[in-house]
């Protein structure tokens, strides 16, 4: 009877089930040790990286895997639910080996090839080993940001690991095409979690392959150290483009961590209107309403119809908290606006006739000033059961909006993104 062979590209994304048939999560990578060759056998598989509810990635030892068949993985025993942390000597197949340029040694010839997939076989003793490497001749195909690649070109071969040199070497800059294809179903928050688990070099390579909008979304979800590392890796022109796409409050927080000379260089490269918003936000203390607010709320004049307001808040790119309130002001309607007349919650808009002007259904809501403390803002949001709050200057002009997610960012510990979902090593999958 032949022993099972599984290609990692097909394994990625498979559902993982416990012995009772309950889904534990989905496979997101395979962890191997490249130095683990014994008696001519390929590198040893250590385990699977599984994404479980709560967006955290945990390690499942390969010894806990009882079957990989029919598009599913069956596990047994106890699974440690602590967040996965990669150790020295360990390598992620999808995250670090796919798209790596290596050398194929064949009949005395040395041919440059690119790793596109890797097969793992179960041995008679129960171990899993990397058994075959699917490679494509030629240089790696570079992704063009924002464009999906077509069919790849070049002769493909299925070779033994012993025929390949360079798997253990980080080498030159590596493409991220296969990695992003494996993660294409992920939301920005999940992609940020995956990128956080990579090495600094690999994070930079993935950032280079992402389009500006996706990278901006990912940076907003990463811990401060990671996003600062990625931003400083980018060339100044692209860093400025990404900052323009980010939410103004998130972009300001990132700029605030840079030296003054770097801040000014990036602001000079940005569009004047975008740079002006960020310069204004940088003047406020980070623990005040001015330091927390976004300068891009939804603003309309009093004569605009409810139908028009609903069309604006329906835009996909709007954060849900920002879309929850429509602010009604005198002209101009770009911050800093004319005098704030009031605001309308989206629920109120849904209850009124579409042809009515928004000025006729204003809610009585007290705004805060840019100097209001974090405590004042938090109490105001709690008092009125809101997820957003208007911020006005001394003349009553709307200058921005504070959303509850930005308040939580400042209330939670600095490393909350790294610790989210951890519950003291909770074990959830039991033997039967």
TrEMBL record:
- UniProt xrefs under Pfam families: CBS, MgtE_N, PRC, SH3_actinomycetes
| InterPro entries associated with the record | CBS_dom (IPR000644), CBS_dom_sf (IPR046342), Mg_transptr_MgtE_intracell_dom (IPR006668), MgtE_N_sf (IPR038076), MgtE_transporter (IPR006669), PRC-brl_dom (IPR027275), PRC_barrel-like_sf (IPR011033), SH3_actinomycetes (IPR058838)
What are the UniProt keywords, alphabetically?
A: CBS domain
Q: List residues traversing the bilayer.
A: none
Alphabetical list of SMART domains matching this protein: CBS, MgtE_N
The family database entries (PROSITE patterns) matched by this protein are listed as: CBS (PS51371)
Every copy of the CBS domain together lies at 293-360, 361-419
Domain of life, per the record?
Bacteria
Supply the name of the protein: Magnesium transporter MgtE N-terminal domain-containing protein
């Amino acid at each position: 009877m032949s022993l099972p062979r599984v290609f990692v590209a097909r394994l990625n994304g498979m559902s993982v089930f416990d012995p009772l048939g309950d889904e534990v999560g989905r496979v997101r990578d395979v962890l191997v040790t490249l130095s683990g060759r014994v008696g001519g056998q390929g590198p040893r598989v250590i385990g699977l990286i599984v994404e479980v509810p709560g967006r955290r990635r945990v390690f499942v030892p390969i010894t806990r895997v009882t079957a990989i068949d029919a598009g599913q993985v069956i596990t047994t025993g106890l699974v440690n639910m602590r967040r996965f942390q990669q150790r020295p000597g360990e390598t992620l197949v999808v995250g670090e080996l796919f798209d790596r340029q290596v050398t194929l040694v064949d009949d005395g010839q040395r041919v440059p090839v690119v790793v596109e997939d890797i097969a793992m076989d179960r041995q008679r003793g129960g171990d899993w080993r990397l058994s075959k490497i699917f490679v494509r001749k030629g240089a790696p195909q570079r992704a063009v940001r924002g464009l999906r690649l077509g069919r790849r070109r070049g002769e493909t071969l299925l070779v033994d690991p012993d025929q390949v040199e360079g798997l253990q070497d980080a080498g030159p800059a590596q493409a991220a095409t296969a990695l992003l294809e494996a993660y294409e179903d992920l939301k920005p928050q999940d992609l940020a979690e995956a990128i956080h688990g990579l090495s600094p070099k690999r994070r930079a390579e993935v950032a280079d392959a992402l389009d500006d909008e996706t990278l901006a979304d990912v940076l907003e979800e990463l811990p401060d150290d990671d996003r600062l590392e990625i931003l400083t890796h980018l060339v100044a022109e692209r860093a400025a483009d990404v900052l323009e796409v980010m939410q103004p409050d998130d972009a300001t927080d990132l700029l605030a961590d840079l030296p003054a000379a770097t801040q000014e260089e990036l602001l000079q490269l940005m569009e004047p209107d975008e740079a002006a918003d960020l310069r204004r936000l940088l003047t406020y203390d980070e623990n005040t309403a001015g330091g927390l607010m976004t300068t891009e709320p939804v603003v309309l004049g009093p004569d605009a119809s409810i139908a028009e307001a609903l069309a604006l808040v329906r835009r996909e790119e709007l954060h849900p908290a920002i879309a929850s309130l429509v602010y009604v002001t005198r002209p101009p309607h770009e911050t800093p606006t004319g005098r704030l007349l009031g605001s309308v919650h989206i629920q109120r808009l849904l209850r009124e006739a579409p042809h009515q002007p928004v000025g006729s259904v204003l809610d009585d809501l007290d705004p805060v000033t840019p100097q209001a403390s974090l405590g004042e803002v938090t109490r105001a949001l709690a008092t009125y059961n809101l997820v957003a709050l208007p911020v006005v200057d001394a003349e009553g002009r709307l200058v921005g909006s504070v959303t509850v997610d930005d308040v939580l960012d400042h209330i939670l510990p600095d490393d909350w993104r790294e610790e989210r979902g951890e519950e003291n090593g909770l074990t959830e999958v039991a033997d039967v």
